[in-house]
Amino acid sequence: MRKNFGKKTIITPLPVVILGTYDENGVPNAMNAAWAGQIDAHQIVVSLSKHKTTDNLERCGEFTVSFATRKTAVESDYFGIETGRKVNKIEKAGFHAEEGEYVNAPVFAEYPLTLECRVVELRPDTEGYILIGETVNMSADESILTDGKVDLGKMEPIMFDSSMNKYRVIGEIVGDAFKDGMKLR
Ligand SMILES: Cc1cc2nc3c(=O)[nH]c(=O)nc-3n(C[C@H](O)[C@H](O)[C@H](O)COP(=O)(O)O)c2cc1C
């Protein structure tokens, strides 16, 4: 038996990305976004309502994308329930912002994997904006590398479970991509 849910939409896994921007005074801000994805080898897309972050993106045109991890789950959730319009979230969380090497946007030391991106389009839509960004550099802390590659098992990124409003950890390897299906070919 299957149960119908009508229009309810669950795409899984939804990532927990952290958008890093500077405000008009150069104060770093971080925002949690789960409605995000990758649309080609170098472009990302995020569905956004109007926030301090979108004001910063409109003005600055550059941002960082970091990935929430098991270790940073509490702070990452905080970045999604508080606004940089009222508080310096980075100070409150005890995080450390460094200047991006390739873009004018903050890189947070506590996140081990970060994309530095330029805004390609911040397109208004009915509920806010669709942000399309192009990655100009990705950097990773050595602690999450295995043989020079990003190792998600070490990194322990979390995903947003939109069915139960929970965060879940990603990491276990259960197969080899482009290979396992060969058994059935
Ligand atoms: C799990 C989670 C996912 C979220 N995903 C999004 C999202 O994809 N798009 C969006 O506009 N807001 C999203 N939010 C809400 C923003 O993060 C929130 O409104 C935040 O306070 C905005 O910060 P800012 O005003 O400092 O930019 C999410 C919040 C949480 C907790």
Task: Write up this protein.
The longest helix is centred in the first third of the chain and has 9 residues, at 52-60. The chain has a single domain, classed as Pnp Oxidase, Chain A, CATH 2.30.110. By secondary structure, the protein is mainly beta. The strands form 4 sheets. Strands 3-2-6-9-10-5-4 form a 7-stranded antiparallel β-sheet. Strands 1-13-14 form a 3-stranded antiparallel β-sheet, with no helix packed on it. Strands 7-8 form a two-stranded antiparallel ribbon. It is 15% helix and 39% strand. Strand 2 (17-22) and strand 3 (28-33) form a beta hairpin. The two termini are 30 Å apart. Flavin mononucleotide (FMN) is lined by residues 29, 31-35, 47-49, 51-53, 77, 80-85, 128, 160.
Q: What are the key terms here?
A:
globular, 7-stranded antiparallel beta sheet, mainly beta, binds flavin mononucleotide, Pnp Oxidase, Chain A
